[in-house]
Specification:
By secondary structure, the protein is mainly beta. Helix content is 4%, strand content 41%. Keywords: Metal-binding, Zinc, Zinc-finger.
C-alpha cells in the first residue's frame, strides 16, 4: 500500500466550494460528486431541477463513516418466528400484500408443479386461495393489489386481477422479459434481453432495465454506464428503495454467479456489490429493501444473508444454514408487521419448499 510522508514538502490545495469557490465546505452531493458551502447548497444546488432527488450529506458525516469503519455484524436474524411448508418444491419468488396475503411461485424442472399460488398464513399452515398453472419467472404487485407477472422465456407482462382474470398489458417482443418490479410511484421496472442464448454476453447483446409509467409508457432505459460499458448481463431480480434507487441482481452465467448493481432512476451507477472476498463465490438469489433503505440479499452458494446500506457497505453477514438451519433461500420479502419472509427449497427427504418467518436485528431494519 502506498503511503505519504509528512516530511515530503508537497503543497496541499484546500478544497473549495464547487459553485462559489469559497472554502467553508459543509456539504457534499453524493450524486453530483461536488462539495459546497451552506449558502450554495440552499441557493444553488437545491434550485437545480436535475438535483431534486440527490443525496446531500454533511462533510462531518462522511468523515465519520470512512470505508472500513463500519462494523459488520454476524447476526442478521434475531429470532425465527415460524416456518411453513408450501405446496411447491421451492419458493422462487415471494410477495406479501398489505392485507397479509402471500403470493409465491415455483419455476423449476418439475414443470407440472410450476405455479403461482395465492394464500394466507394461518397459525400452523398456509390456506390456499388460488393457484395459477403457469411457468412464471417473476411477479410484482401494483398499487391496486393486482399481480403483474412474466412467464419464462416470454415477452409479455400479464396482470392477474382480483377476480382471477388474466390479461396482457405490455408486449416487449422481440425482447425477452427477465424480471419485474413496481416502485413506490407505481412505475413498472423490468429487466430485458435480446432473443437467443443468455450467455455469454457479447458486445452486440442488449441487456436493459426499463422504467415504465403506470400506464406502461416508457420513461427511462438503463443500459450503459458513462464509459459506454454494459451495466447488466442478466437482470434477474429488481427492487427499489424509498428514493427509487434501482437495485438489480445481475447474473453473469448459468451457474447463478452474480452481483448487485445499484443505479439511480436516471441510470447513473451508484455502486456494485460483488459479495465478500473471504466467502469467494457469490450467488445472489433473493433481494428486498428494509424501511431504512438497507438491502437484504440471500446468497444461495454460501447459505447466507448479506445486508448492505444504500452506499454499498456491508452491515451484516449471517450464515443462516449453519446458524438457523434455513437452507436454499431463493426469495425475500417483508410483511406488514416488519417480519422478513424467506422462501426456500425443499430439504433432504422433503417434498415441498418452505417459507420461514424471521425477525431481523433492529439496527439493520
Amino acid at each position: 500500500m502506498a503511503t505519504s510522508s509528512p516530511g515530503i514538502g508537497i503543497a496541499q490545495v484546500p478544497v473549495s466550494c464547487y459553485f462559489c469557490k469559497g472554502q467553508d465546505i459543509k456539504w457534499t452531493c453524493v450524486d453530483c460528486n461536488v462539495r459546497m458551502c451552506n449558502s450554495c447548497k440552499i441557493t444553488v444546488h437545491q434550485g437545480l431541477q436535475c438535483a431534486q432527488d440527490h443525496e446531500v450529506v454533511s462533510i462531518q458525516d462522511i468523515s465519520g463513516s470512512r470505508p472500513g469503519s463500519q462494523e459488520v455484524t454476524s447476526v442478521v436474524i434475531s429470532l425465527v418466528v415460524n416456518s411453513f411448508t408450501t405446496t411447491l418444491p421451492a419458493v422462487h419468488s415471494l410477495l406479501c400484500s398489505d392485507d397479509d396475503l402471500l403470493y409465491f411461485t415455483y419455476n423449476g424442472q418439475t414443470s407440472d408443479k410450476c405455479q403461482l399460488v395465492k394464500g394466507k398464513l394461518l397459525k400452523s399452515s398456509i390456506k390456499i386461495i388460488q393457484m395459477l398453472q403457469r411457468e412464471i419467472s417473476d411477479i410484482a404487485m401494483n398499487k391496486d393489489g393486482e399481480i403483474l407477472f412474466i412467464e419464462h422465456h416470454d415477452h409479455k407482462i400479464q396482470v392477474l386481477s382480483h377476480t382471477g382474470e388474466v390479461k396482457t398489458v405490455l408486449d416487449s417482443s422481440p425482447m425477452k422479459l427477465l424480471a419485474i418490479h413496481v416502485n413506490k410511484d407505481n412505475e413498472v421496472v423490468v429487466g430485458l434481453r435480446e432473443p437467443g442464448p443468455p450467455f455469454p454476453v457479447h458486445d452486440f447483446s442488449v441487456r436493459q432495465v426499463i422504467i415504465f409509467s403506470g400506464d406502461f409508457q416508457r420513461r427511462e432505459t438503463i443500459e450503459l454506464d458513462k464509459k459506454g460499458n454494459k451495466l447488466f448481463s442478466y437482470a434477474y431480480r429488481i427492487r427499489t428503495d424509498s428514493r427509487n434507487v434501482v437495485y438489480v441482481i445481475d447474473r453473469f452465467d448459468n451457474d447463478s454467479n452474480g452481483r448487485i448493481v445499484a443505479v439511480d432512476e436516471n441510470g447513473r451507477l451508484k455502486f456494485i456489490y460483488d459479495g465478500q472476498k473471504d466467502t469467494g463465490t457469490f450467488q445472489p438469489n433473493g433481494i428486498t429493501i428494509t424501511p431504512s433503505d438497507n438491502i437484504v440479499v440471500s446468497d444461495y452458494y454460501n447459505e447466507a444473508l448479506h445486508v448492505i446500506n444504500s452506499k454499498g457497505d456491508l452491515l451484516g453477514l449471517q450464515f443462516i444454514f449453519k446458524d438457523l438451519n434455513i437452507y436454499d433461500s431463493f426469495s425475500l420479502c417483508f410483511d406488514t408487521e416488519g417480519y422478513l419472509l424467506i422462501g426456500c427449497a425443499r430439504g433432504d427427504n422433503e417434498d415441498n419448499g418452505k417459507i420461514s418467518i424471521v425477525k431481523m436485528v433492529d439496527s439493520l431494519v
